[in-house]
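Incident log, structure service

09:12 report received: a user says their structure output differs between two submissions of the same chain.
09:20 pulled the input from the user's history:
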Amino acid sequence: MRAFPPGRPGGSPLARAADWCFALQTWLMAACLAVMVMLLFGNVALRYLFNSGINVSDEISRLAFVWMIFLGSVIALRSHQHIGVTMLVERFGPGARRAAHVFSQLLILWVLWLMADGSWTQTVIGLDTALPVTGMPLAAFNAATLYAAVAMGLLTLADLARVLAGGPLPLPPGHAGGQE
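09:34 re-ran on a clean worker, output below:
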């Protein structure tokens, strides 16, 4: 399944830019995975074959893993792939379903605000703390959380605006049936 909608030749420039950004995020995730595999496999091979290793492999691999997870969470939010329990909401009528969606999006925005606020604080603190092997600032890890919170907040705001303007509610993947 694609992490982003297919290209929209007749779509707005903003929609095409969003598709491009999410395609870039998908490639960045693949790059993070490739870096992790190369560094960890190389480190294991060097340890067994030559009794040496790559000193920075653990820190760089950990950083790539953290960024890959948060990039993936943004992509999952955009494509409605996060876990959701809808057995109660599916029994609601169209108006109550819309109200529940708006309420849940407002709760999500509040949690994302807390996440962004906390990660901003940790990123600023981490600017003065260097990692032991690479010497990179610890903020490189915390910035992934900050990025995800801001990106998911923007996606949630866009979804909320669309639904409040009367647009259809998003359906979870694989859900059959009409919107409302």
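09:41 both user submissions now match this output. Likely a transient worker issue. Closing.
09:42 reviewer note: Residues 9 and 148 are 28 Å apart (CA to CA). The chain has a mean pLDDT of 85.
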